[in-house]
Amino acid sequence: MSADNKHISKLIPDYLDNNLEPSDRKKVEEHLSECGECQIELEETKKLFVAFDTTIEVPSDRLTSKFDEMLQAEKEASGKVVSFFPKKEKSQWAGNLLKVAASIALLVASFQMGGVFQQKKSNEDMLVLRNESLQMKQTAMLSLMENQSASKRIQGVSYIDEFENPDEAIIDALANRLLFDDNDNVRLTASEALAKFATSETVKNVFIEALGKEKNPSIQIAIIQILVGIQEKKAIAPMKKLLEQEDTHPFIKEEIKAVLPKII
Amino acid sequence: METLSDEMIMQQVVEGNLDLLKVLFERHHRHVYNFLYKMSGDRMLSEDLTQDVFYKLIKYRSSYKSGAFVSWLFTIARNNLRTHYTRNHKNNLDIGVLDYKAVEAETNKTEEYSHLQRALNQLHPDDRELIILNRFQEIRYEELAQILGSTPGAVKTKVSRVLKKLRKIYMEPL
What we know:
The complex is a heterodimer.
Chain A: H1 3-16, H2 22-32, H3 36-54, H4 61-145, H5 150-158, H6 168-180, H7 184-195, H8 201-213, H9 217-229, H10 236-244, H11 250-263
Helix pairs in contact in A: 1-2, 1-3, 4-5, 4-6, 5-7, 6-7, 6-8, 7-9, 8-9, 8-10, 9-11, 10-11
Chain B: H1 6-14, H2 20-40, H3 43-59, H4 69-88, H5 100-106, H6 111-121, H7 125-134, H8 141-148, H9 152-171
Helix pairs in contact in B: 1-2, 2-3, 2-4, 3-4, 4-8, 6-9, 7-9, 8-9
């Protein structure tokens, strides 16, 4: 037959299976209507296909039940694994969260600790610095008070303002200035400096001693006023002694007379 | 579940939903069985081999990569059949050892059936396989090409040629 026919022959299976494009389908149908040979081929192929479709065997139920058994066995075998996984993953997830939380906590804690330590350290540093500066001032003060120049000694005495709680060395140094310094101004400044610590027993004794020794009237006045200010009874005896002394300045005597009743 | 494609179901199976294997079994076990039966003509053997195909589906589910599921399934079925014949006919590795007489003795069905089976058995096993697979509606030329390691065009031409041969055998008077 013609080449055309051969072409149609090739299309017959797809024609029967309904797999042809509408255009091809139309072509096949047109050809079939005028070609007896192809009609026979179509019929025979159709018979063959029907034979295929009608010889579908149905396997026994054994196959299905066997499959169910196999699937069940597999589910149990892998089920153990599967049931473990979500738990494991869950705990891992929670564990990870805990780890993250712990890390954050650790970070915050170390930051805080660092801050605390830093503060403590800086406080310590400050304290050390302050101590050092106090030490230096004390040294400077003490050495200044030993200086040849009276004005330097006054400057040293004035340093007392830097100390809230001066130690004995400073008090002794000031007392020495008050009792033994040649310069009136140094003694006067020393008396003013010591006046802040007049409540101390040592300082009181220093004043009483100074009152007996002091010849400069203005310093005497200053000491008298300090002693009256602290109402020191021990100061009465040296004051009376001053009244009796001939060389005592008249207005000192008047001052003593004026303040003596205040002490009592 | 009925509307999901085999491939989508298989994807879920791979992810661990083993129950869906039952759906795949229900959809395909008759076709696998019929393929094996038409190839071997042996019901018991076909059931055993079908069972083994689905056993392998369960066991090796994770080895399924994307691609047509039927191609994968029938590749397993083909290999099962080949392995069976290789094991049982060590001297003859060809699948063509399938004995016509064995099929004849086994056959106890309608005239139509034995007629087709006889015709099929006269084909070369490769041709027989091609035409049996081609007759399953679910296996199109693309899937067939995948199973046979060929191209859809080449498969189509071959199917046409083998069909013609089979038709002639089938139409011959007994």
